[in-house]
Amino acid sequence: DAKTTQPPSMDCAEGRAANLPCNHSTISGNEYVYWYRQIHSQGPQYIIHGLKNNETNEMASLIITEDRKSSTLILPHATLRDTAVYYCIVRVKLGNEKLTFGTGTRLTIIP
Amino acid sequence: GAVVSQHPSRVICKSGTSVKIECRSLDFQATTMFWYRQFPKQSLMLMATSNEGSKATYEQGVEKDKFLINHASLTLSTLTVTSAHPEDSSFYICSGGQGNTEAFFGQGTRLTVV
What we know:
The structure holds two protein chains of two kinds.
Chain A: E1 9-13, E2 18-23, E3 32-38, E4 45-50, E5 55-56, E6 61-64, E7 70-75, E8 84-91, E9 105-110
Parallel strand pairs in A: 1-9
Antiparallel strand pairs in A: 2-7, 3-4, 3-8, 5-6, 6-7, 8-9
Chain B: E1 4-7, E2 10-13, E3 19-25, E4 32-38, E5 45-51, E6 57-58, E7 67-73, E8 76-81, E9 90-96, E10 104-105, E11 109-113
Parallel strand pairs in B: 2-11
Antiparallel strand pairs in B: 1-3, 3-8, 4-5, 4-9, 5-6, 7-8, 9-10, 9-11
């Protein structure tokens, strides 16, 4: 699976959009971009995933660049409960597979 | 979405004793589950893959005789930390899924060995 690079930490004001970048310049054509988050002392939570098109669900939007070498996770209206570590993971298969977690981005939502 | 339940959420044990952690899939059958470990301020590291009805597959550097995994049914995988020592204190997390559904994670177990 391709490696990813994320900033170690970010702050965002409550109510604003949080934009979390991820670089995956070595991504292969059949690899998906996944985002998970981990709130303190809990198991990771799936957020969203995509292959090449932008995706949106009730939690977030995922913007993937045309060359697929980077992506951005957008939390449109961040709340204090969005404070967590966000992991960008690139992997080949869909479904129940083992995941390789990087160091992620620690997002802090500021009141 | 699918639910994975992990128990206990927190356990304190004495050095030299064994601790069993349970991971249950509540609304699906999981032929494969994964066990991760997370030390403070670090990321999750895969320990082993638990396979229903067969032996678990361990990642390099993980002692299979120390971390016993049993996956005797399609809804239950257990991780037993044998002869626990303070350096085994960590946050243990399981995950599972079904078919093309996304992998779902348990709530995690905070193990403290004193």
